[in-house]
UniProtKB/TrEMBL annotation:
It is a peripheral membrane protein. GO terms for biological process: early endosome to Golgi transport; intracellular protein transport. It comes from Frankliniella occidentalis (Western flower thrips). This is Sorting nexin-8 isoform X1. Residues 29-46 form the EH domain. The gene is LOC113218090. Belongs to the sorting nexin family. CDD domains: BAR_SNX8, PX_SNX8_Mvp1p_like. PANTHER family: SORTING NEXIN-8. Keywords: Membrane, Protein transport, Transport. GO terms for molecular function: phosphatidylinositol binding. Pfam families: PX (PF00787), Snx8_BAR_dom (PF19566). The keyword Plastid does not apply. Coiled coil: none annotated.
Amino acid sequence: MCTIPSFYRDVYDLCSVADSVSKEMFTRLLVKSGLPQQKLSQIWELMEAKQGSLSRTSLYKALALVAWAQQGKELSVKLLDNFSGDEYPVPSLGDLSDLRQLQKQRQRQCHPGHLGMRYGDLCRLDTVTVHLVPEKKGLFLKHVEYQVTSKRFGTKVRRRYNDFVSLYDLLLGRFPYRLIPRLPPKKMNIGSDTQFIEERRQWLWRWLSLVSRHPVINQDPILQFFFTYDGDDIQHKIREIFRRVPDEFTTSELASRAKELVPPDTLTELANSREHIRLITNSVSRVKQITDGLAQRSQAYGSDMAELGSQLTLLASENNGTSSWATGGNQIWSEMKKGFHTISKELGILSSKAMAQSVREEAELCAQLNLLMDILFAYRDLCARHEKGVMQDHQKAHAKMLSLKKRQMQGVLRGEVESVVALEDRMLQQESVIASVELRSAYSLHCMHMETQLVHAHLELFATVISVLVSVQIRGHAELAEVWRAIQPTISKCLPEDAEQ
């Protein structure tokens, strides 16, 4: 009997949802093989994939056929029946990471009340960067531009702070029951202009990272437009196209069965989770203060060592008061001064090491904690919005429905118009659902349930922070200890021979 390669099991675990592999997933898997269309169609027919999803056994047979096709063999069912080797061949399928994301998406569709994602899964949804464009724009009133890139869309665009504000406002209206982190304020009193610009750039990167990795928000056309539109004046263009787009409940396929998605104990569990996350937020906030203090103390330590070196250099260069009249023939001070220059150089190295340690603590520790704090504060804001009830949201949605019946939304780009029209059609199809305040209330609780799970997925960040804290401190203290050990022999040479007495 032939052995099943472990690769086969890994592929099945990667592609299966509810103990079967869907046609869409199977099709994507076949394309990964790089085989010509004729071979792919032949495998498709042999597996009778048109009949529906594939079982584990059928997928294993398909993988074997792919491997044989890659070896140049003619495909038939007899290959499987007559195979007498010890183990089925392993096909070459390349990178399968995108299939993992698709599987997670399908699992959420099958089990809408279970997020089923860890922090690493969220990070794989997209990787974004926000870099400062060196030159400032504008003839009189200079403004800062940022270069924004998205790995998922493969784009690189320029954005201003107000463009982020427009996106934030639209997302908050579109997803009132989802985690929308706060944007940095337009102005912050944190020191110099350069420091303010860098602090805001980091905050905008964190904000965009969290939004682009949200499993629901990252599928929305509004976010796609922000990452892909390369025209002028995006802050007004994006509002013009999407300002009348209804909120998530209005267009969600889950809205009609929202009551089924809410467990009976949801309100109790939500209250308990809110208190639990509040305590976590307080503790993480305190840890953030401690890590900020570590970075500040390392910087102050570096400054102190630099000042100590400067004072030793000053003492080494000072010649007053060293006459025989003053010393009475005592040469101790002169001997000590010989080593001060050497020691001051070593202290300069010590200062630079301490400054580098401060940068590491700021970049590797504080930045991760800021990201976690952003999501925790976003949850606190979400709970506050939910406390106000859904009546106001319901009234807004109803007003948009009436407005939609009176006029058709206007778009600028064809692609965006089509996405907006699709939302309109969905909105009209479920007009009776929209009219139900009870369903909206249930849907909001379902979203709160999912966002609570999303917060817990982000809590994995804290383990990373603790691990980084240990490694950064080990490295920093080891570097400082090495410099001090290098200083010690010089100090010994500066001491008089009978110093021990």
